[in-house]
Amino acid sequence: MQTAQIVLLCLTTFLNLFSVYLGAIFLFTFRRRRPYPPSERFARFAVIIPARNESGVISNLIAALNGQDYPADRIDVYVAVNNCTDDTEIVSRAAGAKILACTGRITCKGDVLHQAFEALLPMDYDAFAVFDADNIPDPAFMRRMNDALSAGERVCKGRLKAGNAFDSWVSGGYGLYHALMEWTYSLPHTNAGFSSNLVGTAFVAHREVMEALGGWNTSSLCEDTEFAAQTTRLGYRVAFVPEAMSYDEQVARFGVSLRQRRRWCYGMVQAARRMTLSMFRRSCPRRGMARDFGMLFIISHTAPLAGLLGLALLPMQPPVMWALCGAGLALAWIAMSLLAILLCRIGGYPVRRMRGAILMFPLFMASWMPLQTLALFVPVRSWSEIKHHGQKDAG
């Protein structure tokens, strides 16, 4: 028993060492950054909105895009309709968008984007923006992204805020989670000169990148991370632009949230297994940046495995350790709730209205571990639709 315990402890410690790397990069959060200077050169944007049965929310997004603080003649909005059984296309046309009809078998969002870029790349656009149909960008979003592109960035992600954070503790938990990821990953990695990850919406890519990639060519269920890895491997980083704000409708029910996040976790595993080795090749133009992103893929495997081995160690502990574990869990719950209060401040959410999300944030975060572990062993076979109902609190 003692030998097995030592072996498990050594393996757990070794696997956790990879996560220490992220802790080191986190220190760059505190490096002072300067916003991109305002630009008077206005890129011509094609905005792509993949849409599957989004008639209830898509007109809000199109109206927000038409109301941008940006020359209207420099933005064209395209709705890529796919697998629709409602009147998404009719509503989109009425709101002023152009339609891209996706044909053939569509199994994931990456398939939609592949067809959209195939149609739009031959046109005379300087850059492309991608939004989910339930988003509402801040009026300055496109201008701030244009500033970043003018300053030399080629792929940019904006700041994401939960537009319905007060609907439930689950939607509020998503808002706090996004604030945490932006504070601990997107900001420090950008400040360090590395590449941020994407979240699938509210991002832009310069034409130069899309031509270098030959269009959109992802195949995993986590098309955002796979695309970010592809660009990083070519030497183009994903820059975090916190001045570009977008509001996203988050899932409000815990069961639906588990289904959605399980798909995300498995998509990450898919992308990691396909791309990790290529991120460490000498042929990568910016090897340090590519290897940094490769570490994200490695940690997507080592972190859940370390947790699994940690659970395997529990039955080997003496009774007093079980008592200490219980006390440790209680203290961890308190610490995570206090962190959630800080994240409210960082994310711009009023603490009073986020009390449920703050108290349940430890459960929200803890629920990632079984989903990440399950993703290592059990595939997700299909891309399931998430219903959107509109945002009441955006902005």
Description:
With 395 residues, the protein is α/β, with parallel strands linked by helices. It contains 13 helices and eight strands. The protein has helices spanning 2-26, 58-66, 88-95, 109-120, 141-150, 169-191, 207-213, 223-233, 254-275, 287-313, 319-347, 355-366, 368-377; strands at residues 45-51, 75-81, 98-101, 127-130, 136-137, 155-162, 203-206, 238-248. Strands 3-2-1-4-7-6-8-5 form an eight-stranded mixed β-sheet, with helices on both faces. Helix 1 (2-26) packs antiparallel against helix 10 (287-313) and helix 8 (223-233) packs parallel to helix 9. It starts with a helix and ends in an 18-residue tail after the last helix. The mean pLDDT is 94.
Give a brief outline of the structure.
The chain is an alpha/beta fold. 52% of the residues lie in helices and 12% in strands.
Q: In angstroms, what is the radius of gyration?
A: 21 Å
Q: Kindly report the spatial arrangement of strands forming the biggest sheet.
A: 3-2-1-4-7-6-8-5
Mean pLDDT: 94
Strand percentage: 5-15%
Helix percent reads 40-55%
Which H/E pattern describes the elements? HEHEHEHEEHEHEHHEHHHHH
DSSP strand count: 8
Properties at a glance:
395 residues, alpha/beta, 8 strands, 52% helix
Task: Give the SSE layout.
Layout (H helix, E strand, L loop, with lengths): L1 H25 L18 E7 L6 H9 L8 E7 L6 H8 L2 E4 L7 H12 L6 E4 L5 E2 L3 H10 L4 E8 L6 H23 L11 E4 H7 L9 H11 L4 E11 L5 H22 L11 H27 L5 H29 L7 H12 L1 H10 L18
Parallel strand pairs: 1-2, 1-4, 2-3, 6-8
Antiparallel strand pairs: 4-7, 5-8, 6-7
Helix pairs in contact: 1-6, 1-10, 2-3, 6-11, 6-12, 8-9, 9-10, 9-13, 10-13, 11-12
